[in-house]
Amino acid sequence: MSTRSNILIAVSAAVAAGACGDISAPSRSDFYDWRLVVGIDSLTFNWPEDHTVRVWVQDTLNMPANTQAGIDSWKDQFLYQEFDAILVADSSTADILVGVTILPAAARAIRLGSMAPECIGDTTFPPLNGSTIVLPFHVRVQPRTLDPLGEATQACLRLTVTHELGHTMGLFVHSTDPNDLMFTDPVSGPSPRDRNTVQQLYHFEADLTASR
Amino acid sequence: MRTTLLLTGLLLPSALTAQSSSTFYAGLGATWSSKLVEDNIVSDKITTQPGIAPTIMVGAATEVFPRYDVGIELQFTTGSYSADTKGKGTTKLGTLNTFSASLGFDGPLFKPPFRWHASVGVLKYLPTEDTGMFLQGGPLKFLLGLGAQYRRPVSSSLDINVALRYDFHRFTTDELQRQGFSQTQQVHRVGLTVGIAMGGRR
What we know:
Number of strands of chain B: 10
Distance between the termini of chain B: 33 Å
Shape of chain A: globular
Order of helices and strands of chain A: HEEEHEEHEEEEHHE
Helix content of chain A: 25-40%
Strand order of the largest sheet of chain A: 4-3-5-9-6
Strand content of chain B: over 45%
Shape of chain B: elongated
Strand order of the largest sheet of chain B: 1-4-5-6-7-8-9-10
Distance between the termini of chain A: 74 Å
Radius of gyration of chain A: 23 Å
Number of helices of chain B: 2
Number of strands of chain A: 10
Number of helices of chain A: 5
Largest sheet of chain A: 5 strands, mixed
Oligomer: heterodimer
Largest interface: A-B, 32 and 40 residues
């Protein structure tokens, strides 16, 4: 076989293998609205890509590990490191404070139909100074069982703190789909819709900034 | 295919050592790669691409026909990779290593000491952190390669060896597919190494 034939065969094989189209990005068209409605404005907030969000967590009921799992879960939704967060020991420098409310045993035994059986959580939106969010965000979770270190309650706390972290990332509106983590009373997630939404959010021009 | 390459990799070195016409070579250099992924989110166009990566290459070949060799070549590259958002800047995503093993054929090109090289093999992406598009690990891909080699004696037993390599593969990852990316990206790499060679045809 001549040198020319060998080269022709190799080049033909390479060209044939490369003839197909290139990788095609997903449309990400299935998402929900995240914007904060203030008066007639719909406002977007996202953490700047060069800012590592500092999260302080009350060290009880395994919440540091649950919060870290929540951070990791959100970071895993991104392809290009648009969001990063770490746990910090100093609450005075934190962007987000995660606290735990533990009610007396008698109170925990009370069940209200509209609440999740194992735990609840909420995020207090910080005051606005013009278009600046005055940090920190306050996240609070509350176990509602007699065994807050039990498997079911821990799973609930982990899911709830991940949901609340979603709010602090700029997902200010609840999803209407029960399959989404940002549904009012989530059961799992983040879902593909949560992922599409947060990916879009972090490539949207922000109306709000955050400052201490 | 993988079994064939594995068997070749295991059996060829012992065959090579038994042949007096065997050539061994090693080199250091650099490899450039084309983009791995192009993405569009909202109005951002994002291109992910490895940087120019330091490269180490070792190989061995033996003559199977007069002037034609067959051999194996191993190549390791280590470098950064980054995502460039058009008009907004670049984000470093981490360190991306690759390891490739290929079965190569080479023969005379124009006139000595130049030789052509063609290869088939596998390429494994080895990110140092399983994040982003490599969240579920680095993929293993089939590789086609072409190249040229220049070899010139510098002592009685040692030659200087310059190898120019081009290879091609199609890229995607499990995580990209999970996130809805379809098809695969054609990736071209060009590497240049300078090193030594000994044994075989001089």
